[in-house]
Amino acid sequence: MSDHREYSHESWFEHLGTALKRSIAGIFLVILSFYLLIWNEERSVLRHQAIKEGAGVAISVRPNQVLSENNGKLVHTSGQLKVFNQLTDPVFNVSVAAIKMSRDVFMYQWVQEIITRTETAQDGGEYTITDYNYKNSGLINW
Predict the structure, then answer these.
(1) Which of 135, 94, 97 is nearest to 114 (CA)?
(2) pLDDT tens digit string along 64-82?
(3) How far apart are CA 46 and CA 62, in angstroms?
(4) Separation CA 97–CA 33 (nearest Å)
(5) I want to staple 111 with a disulfide (CB 3.0 to 4.6 A). Which of 13, 18, 36, 137 is the partner?
């Protein structure tokens, strides 16, 4: 038995109108997808050109060397990272020498299960019966 049940009826003409609206929406989404694809490809080309330009003008420097002549220039360096400050989480009273600290949050989550079935009416319309069931899925990593 379901927690909640919902009944709806759609006549043949309503069914035809719904199909027409969905077809128009589908055509619109196809046209929109072409626009978004072209826009995304243009951004990708611009990003590639910027990275290529940056690689050509970047100056490699040693990590322990700071020169005032490099101010305002794009520099590249690599070396061993040393952390001198402690990061602290005041809620759990934890301190660690690190670059980044993150906290994982878990919560209880109710999951909705929807079961829908459609039956054809004698007048050519459709009856839709929707059952909603809820269950606790336990802890979720959020």
Answers:
(1) 135
(2) 888 899 999 999 999 888 8
(3) 30
(4) 47
(5) 137
